[in-house]
């Protein structure tokens, strides 16, 4: 089960669950409606996992895959600055497609009203953040994730931290116009 909920803002410890008070959980349909983010439930059966990956690879024409492992114990001194970079609110010019191979973590995304929704991903989950959505990532208190990154074309992972320029970027307007027509 992927747990998704509105979160406390601002947060003290980013790796804590940070549920809003009162608790406000949402379903994956609501998430898709509010943000255009696709998140598929955990699938632990390896052959089904492979099928899901093949499907997304074909549907999105991904031709690149690699593995990213994030944990303070494996990354040493680098991990703190890496984690800070991931947790700074940013967008990308391309879709961020991740399949969780091991471990868990939190993707936080902004909804239409600019409120943070936290998506707790774990082994077997697939998440697709559309280009231009403001988001951030953190490990949870288990401090470990191993994820497959999928990409279309020559991979570019550049995060653009939120500012006036990103508000006016092509990726941002593309994302906002994908909401037109949906209420
Ligand atoms: C990003 O750009 O936000 C990320 O790649 C997050 C880490 S993937 C588990
Ligand atoms: Ni990102």
UniProtKB/TrEMBL annotation:
Keyword Metal-binding belongs to the record: yes
Record carries keyword tRNA processing: no
InterPro entries assigned to the protein according to its UniProt record, in alphabetical order: ARD, ARD_euk, RmlC-like_jellyroll, RmlC_Cupin_sf
Any GO MF annotation of the entry: acireductone dioxygenase [iron(II)-requiring] activity
Involved pathway(s): Amino-acid biosynthesis; L-methionine biosynthesis via salvage pathway; L-methionine from S-methyl-5-thio-alpha-D-ribose 1-phosphate: step 5/6
Keywords: Amino-acid biosynthesis, Cytoplasm, Dioxygenase, Iron, Metal-binding, Methionine biosynthesis, Nickel, Nucleus, Oxidoreductase
Binding site for Fe(2+): 90, 92, 96, 135
List of residues binding Ni(2+): 90, 92, 96, 135
Top-level enzyme category: oxidoreductase
Family in the record: Belongs to the acireductone dioxygenase (ARD) family.
Protein name: Acireductone dioxygenase
